[in-house]
């Protein structure tokens, strides 16, 4: 039987998890606690997660990038982090 682990207390759809230097980063569809889109969390053990920030700042009312950020992914290339996502 697996031990019980307290999980993230947020609805996170379409999660993507990567490992960089022994640290895990999770990005998902949803609204971040800082009012931005696509919340990012970090963990060293895949059990306890800390909120980092929302990866996308929503645009102004009526803008194409106001809301509905979906299916994000994080990629690392040459030490830089890139976020890809769909928007509708």
User: So what's the overall shape?
Assistant: globular
The structural domain count equals 1
Largest sheet: 4 strands, antiparallel
Low-confidence parts lasting 5 or more residues at pLDDT below 50? 1-5
Number of strands: 6
Q: What distance separates the N and C termini? A: 42 Å
Topology as a string of helices (H) and strands (E): EEEEEE
Task: State Rg.
Answer: 14 Å
Mean pLDDT over all positions: 87
Strand order of the largest sheet: 1-2-3-4
Structural class comes to mainly beta
Q: What share of the residues lie within helices?
A: under 10%
Q: DSSP strand (E) fraction?
A: over 45%
Total helices: the number is 0
Can you describe this structure?
With 88 residues, this protein is mainly beta. Helices cover 0% and strands 52% of the residues. It has strands at residues 13-20, 23-29, 37-43, 50-56, 69-77, 80-87. The strands form two sheets. It has a four-stranded antiparallel beta sheet, with no helix packed on it. A two-stranded antiparallel sheet has the order 5-6. The N and C termini lie far apart (42 Å). Mean pLDDT is 87; it is low at 1-5.
Task: Produce a short descriptive summary.
The protein has strands spanning 13-20, 23-29, 37-43, 50-56, 69-77, 80-87. The chain is mostly beta strands. It has a 4-stranded antiparallel β-sheet with strand order 1-2-3-4, with no helix packed on it.
């Amino acid at each position: 039987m697996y031990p019980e682990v307290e999980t993230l207390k947020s609805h996170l759809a379409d999660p993507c998890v990567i490992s960089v230097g022994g640290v895990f980063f999770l990005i998902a569809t949803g609204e971040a606690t800082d009012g931005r889109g696509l919340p990012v969390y970090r963990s060293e053990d895949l059990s306890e997660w800390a909120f980092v920030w929302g990866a996308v700042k929503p645009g102004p009312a009526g803008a194409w990038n106001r809301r509905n950020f979906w299916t994000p992914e994080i990629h690392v290339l040459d030490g830089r982090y890139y976020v890809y996502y769909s928007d509708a």
